C-alpha cells in the first residue's frame, strides 16, 4: 500500500514519523510524499497549542474529498492529539479509521493490514517503556538529509510546567539505556551519518531518575552520554534539544565546553523573564539563575550561541512582567527564539486561570520580541563578516539553486557558491563576506 505521513509538531514527532515510515516500509508498504499518490494517509499530530490541533483537524476535513476518487482510502492519526483525543475524533469524524497513541508506532503495520481486509475503527493508546518498539528504526535512504539523524533518548516528561500538555499526552519520562542510544548512533555513523541530534523533552534530566531541582553539580548522565557519542569515529557533530534550565549543572556545562564535537549552540527554553510568572509556570528557576547558565557557558566558550522558547500572554502577565522578559532576551542576545502566544490547554493547571491577556496584546508582545530578535541577529551577523567557519554543506539553497547553503556548528545558515565536486553532507571552510539578519553569505576557502 502507498502511505503518506504528514507531520505536525516538534522534532520528537518528526522522529516518530521516521520510525513509523521505517516500520511500514519494512512490512512491504511504500512511503509516498503527497496525499494524492497515497492509498492511506496518516497525520502525526501535535496538541501543544490549540492552533496545532485545529490545523490537523482542518486537514482531515479537507482530505475527505480524496474519498470521491479512491473510496477505499484509509485515514489515520497518530501522535499527541491521537493520544489525548483519539476516541472523540474517531467518533466525530466518520472517515477517520484509526487513532494511534504516542507509544504505539509499532502497531501501524498491523492496523493498516487489518483495515485493508475489513473496515472498522481502530484505537491503540497503551503506554510502553522507554524502548518502545520501533524507537530506533531509521530510514536514512529516504531522508532529506541522509547525513544527519535524530535519536530519541527519552520519551515523555515529568516537569508539569503549568501551561504544558506534553506530560499528559506523552506520559511520564522514560529514559533509554545509554548502551542502546550509543548502538543506534554507531549504526547511523556506519550508514554515513555525520551529525546526530539527541532528542527529549528534558535531555538534561536524562538518567537522573525522579530528582527535583536543585540538582547536584557533579552528576550528569547526559554529559556522560555526550562523551560516549563523541567517541564514535564517524560522528562529527552532536546537537541536542531541549535541556530544562533547572537541570543544567556544572558537569553539563563542562562537557559542552570540552567536547569538540558537541555543537556550540544551546537551545535553552526561558519561557519568561519574570520571576513571578516563572513561578506560576512551575519553572523552578529565576531569571538570574537562567542568566547565570548563559554567563558560565560564554565564559568557557565565548562564541557559543543560544536559542530559546518564550511564551507571551501567560495568565496575569502584566506589562512589567513582559518587560522583564524583553529585558532578559535583550541581555542574552539570542540567535534564535520561538515565541508563542499562550494557549490554554485542557487538563493543565494554568487552564484553570482566566486567559486574561487580550489576543491583540499577546500579538503586540509577540511582535516586540520578534523585532528584538531581528535586531540582535542583524548586529551579531554583521560582526561575523570576515571570519572563517567550518560548514556542513546541506545542498542547493531553496531560493537560488545555483548557490548552496550550509550550517556552522553554531547553527547559522551560510549561503555560498559551491566549489566543484562538493557533495551534500561534506564539510568545507567558508569565509563570511556578507550578512543580513537571517542569513550569512560566504566563499569557500582552503583550510
Ligand atoms: N520540552 C520542551 C518544550 C516542548 S513544547 C522544553 O521544555 O524545552 C515547546 C514549547 O511550546 C515550549 O517550550 C513552550 O514555549 C511552548 N508551549 C508549551 N505549551 C504552551 C501553551 N499552552 N501555550 C503556548 N505555548 C506553549
Ligand atoms: Fe512541557 Fe515543561 Fe515538559 Fe517542556 S519541560 S515538555 S514545557 S512540561
Ligand atoms: Fe506537540 Fe507532542 Fe511535540 S504536543 S510539541 S508534538 S511532544
Total domain units: 3
Low-confidence stretches: none
CATH architecture of the largest domain: 2-Layer Sandwich
CATH C-level category of the largest domain: Alpha Beta
Specify the number of helices.
13
Largest sheet: 6 strands, parallel
Q: The CATH topology of the largest domain is what?
A: Transcription Regulator spoIIAA
In words, what does this structure look like?
- This protein has 447 residues and is an alpha/beta fold.
- The protein folds into three domains: 2-124, Methylthiotransferase, N-terminal domain (Rossmann fold); 129-263, Transcription Regulator spoIIAA (2-Layer Sandwich); 388-445, OB fold (Dihydrolipoamide Acetyltransferase, E2P), CATH 2.40.50.
- It has 13 helices and 19 strands.
- The chain has helices at residues 11-26, 50-63, 66-69, 80-92, 108-117, 166-170, 178-190, 221-230, 250-258, 275-280, 287-300, 319-332, 359-382; strands at residues 2-7, 30-32, 40-45, 74-79, 98-100, 122-124, 148-152, 154-155, 174-175, 195-199, 237-241, 265-267, 305-312, 336-341, 388-396, 404-407, 413-416, 427-435, 440-445.
- The strands form five sheets. A six-stranded parallel β-sheet has the order 2-1-3-4-5-6, sandwiched between helices. A five-stranded mixed beta barrel has the order 15-16-17-19-18.
- α9 packs parallel to α11 (287-300).
- The chain is globular, with a radius of gyration of 22 Å.
- It starts with a strand and ends with a strand.
- The model has no long low-confidence stretch (mean pLDDT 96).
- It binds S-adenosyl-L-homocysteine, iron/sulfur cluster and FE3-S4 cluster.
- Iron/sulfur cluster is lined by residues 157, 159-161, 164, 166-167, 201-202, 244.
- FE3-S4 cluster binds next to α1 and α6.
Amino acid at each position: 500500500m502507498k502511505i503518506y505521513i504528514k507531520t505536525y509538531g516538534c522534532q520528537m514527532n518528526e522522529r516518530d514519523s521516521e520510525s513509523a515510515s521505517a516500520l511500514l516500509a519494512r512490512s512491504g508498504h511504500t512511503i509516498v510524499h503527497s496525499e494524492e499518490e497515497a492509498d492511506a494517509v496518516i497525520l502525526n499530530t501535535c496538541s501543544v497549542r490549540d492552533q496545532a490541533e485545529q490545523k490537523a483537524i482542518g486537514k482531515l476535513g479537507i482530505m475527505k474529498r480524496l474519498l470521491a476518487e479512491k473510496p477505499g482510502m484509509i485515514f489515520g492519526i497518530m501522535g499527541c492529539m491521537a493520544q489525548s483525543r483519539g476516541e472523540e475524533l474517531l467518533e466525530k469524524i466518520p472517515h477517520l479509521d484509526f487513532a494511534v497513541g504516542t507509544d504505539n508506532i509499532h502497531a501501524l503495520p498491523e492496523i493498516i493490514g487489518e483495515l485493508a481486509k475489513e473496515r472498522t475503527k481502530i484505537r491503540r493508546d497503551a503506554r510502553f517503556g522507554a524502548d518502545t518498539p520501533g524507537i530506533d528504526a531509521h530510514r536514512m535512504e529516504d531522508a532529506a538529509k541522509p547525513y544527519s539523524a535524530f535519536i530519541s533518548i527519552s520519551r515523555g516528561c515529568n516537569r508539569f510546567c503549568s501551561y504544558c500538555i506534553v506530560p499528559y499526552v506523552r506520559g511520564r519520562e522514560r529514559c533509554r539505556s545509554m548502551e542502546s542510544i550509543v548502538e543506534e548512533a554507531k549504526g547511523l555513523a556506519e550508514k554515513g551519518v555525520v551529525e546526530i541530534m539527541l532528542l527529549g523533552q528534558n535531555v538534561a534530566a536524562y538518567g537522573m531518575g525522579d530528582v527535583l531541582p536543585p540538582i547536584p553539580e557533579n552528576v550528569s548522565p547526559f554529559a556522560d552520554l555526550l562523551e560516549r557519542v563523541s567517541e564514535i569515529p564517524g560522528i562529527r557533530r552532536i546537537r541536542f534539544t531541549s535541556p530544562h534550565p533547572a537541570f543544567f549543572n556544572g558537569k553539563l556545562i563542562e562537557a559542552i565546553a570540552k567536547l569538540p564535537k558537541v555543537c556550540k549552540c544551546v537551545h535553552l527554553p526561558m519561557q519568561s523573564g519574570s520571576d513571578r510568572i516563572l513561578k506560576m509556570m512551575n519553572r523552578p528557576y529565576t531569571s538570574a539563575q537562567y542568566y547565570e547558565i548563559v554567563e558560565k557557558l560564554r565564559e568557557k566558550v565565548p562564541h557559543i550561541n543560544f536559542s530559546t522558547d518564550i511564551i507571551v500572554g501567560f495568565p496575569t502577565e502584566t506589562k512589567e512582567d513582559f518587560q522583564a522578559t524583553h529585558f532578559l532576551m535583550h541581555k542574552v542576545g539570542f540567535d534564535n527564539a520561538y515565541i508563542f502566544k499562550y494557549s490554554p490547554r485542557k487538563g493543565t493547571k494554568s487552564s484553570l486561570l482566566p486567559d486574561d491577556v487580550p489576543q491583540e496584546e499577546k500579538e503586540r508582545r509577540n511582535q516586540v520580541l520578534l523585532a528584538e530578535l531581528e535586531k540582535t541577529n542583524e548586529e551579531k551577523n554583521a560582526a561575523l563578516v570576515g571570519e572563517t567557519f567550518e560548514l556542513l554543506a546541506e545542498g542547493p539553497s531553496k531560493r537560488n539553486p545555483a548557490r548552496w547553503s550550509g550550517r556552522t556548528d553554531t547553527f547559522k545558515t551560510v549561503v555560498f557558491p559551491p566549489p566543484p565536486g562538493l557533495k551534500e553532507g561534506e564539510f568545507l571552510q567558508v569565509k563570511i563576506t556578507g550578512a543580513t539578519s537571517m542569513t550569512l553569505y560566504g566563499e569557500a576557502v582552503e583550510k
